[in-house]
Amino acid sequence: MKSKANGEQTVTNVFNIIGNGTNIKGDVNASGDIRIDGSIVGNLTTAGKLIIGEQGYIEGETSVKIADISGSYKGKLTASQLVILRSTSKFDGDLFTKKVVIEEGSVFNGTLTMEKGMQQKTTTQPRKEN
């Protein structure tokens, strides 16, 4: 991340990968794009694009610009621009976005809210343990 003279931060071209076999329990905040081939149980926030590979899994609350899902997602997903649910994806939860593409074969269980003026949420609340 780069800082401007006025204290604002800009996003650099950072690409993060959570590999297959890597499991994270907790919150993840990224400034760039992120690909998940492992699993995250917790909240995820990024100013960039989220890619969930076929073996990837997220459970929690997520806020991104664009989401491209081939794996599994459970929870609340807010994407300020676009969500693509690929044919291998499984989605269970609440989806908030401007645009959505659901490919044939994708499994979607939940609610979908589409709004033109959608803004990306920049903060997450800590998960409560049961």
Q: Would you give an account of this structure?
A:
It is a single chain. It is built from no helices and 13 strands. The N and C termini lie far apart (35 Å). 29% of the residues are buried. It has one domain. Strands 3, 4, 5, 6, 7, 8, 9, 10, 11, 12 and 13 form an 11-stranded parallel beta sheet that branches. Strands 1-2 form a two-stranded antiparallel ribbon. The chain is mainly beta. Helices cover 0% and strands 58% of the residues. The protein has strands spanning 2-3, 9-10, 15-18, 23-25, 28-30, 33-36, 39-41, 44-46, 49-52, 57-69, 72-85, 90-102, 107-114.
Task: Characterize this entry briefly.
This protein is mainly β. It is built from no helices and 13 strands.
Largest sheet: 11 strands, parallel
What is the multimeric organization of the chains shown?
single chain
Unreliable runs = 121-128
Number of domains: 1
Pairing-aware structural class of the strands and helices? mainly beta
User: Whole-Å distance between the termini?
Assistant: 35 Å
Number of helices: 0
Give the integer mean of the pLDDT values. 86
The total count of strands amounts to 13
Order of helices and strands: EEEEEEEEEEEEE
Tell me the β content.
Answer: over 45%
What's the helical proportion of residues? under 10%
Rg value: 14 Å
- What's the overall geometry? globular
Sequence-ordered SSE layout with sheet pairings:
Layout: E1 2-3, E2 9-10, E3 15-18, E4 23-25, E5 28-30, E6 33-36, E7 39-41, E8 44-46, E9 49-52, E10 57-69, E11 72-85, E12 90-102, E13 107-114
Parallel strand pairs: 3-6, 4-7, 5-8, 6-9, 7-10, 8-10, 9-10, 10-11, 11-12, 12-13
Antiparallel strand pairs: 1-2
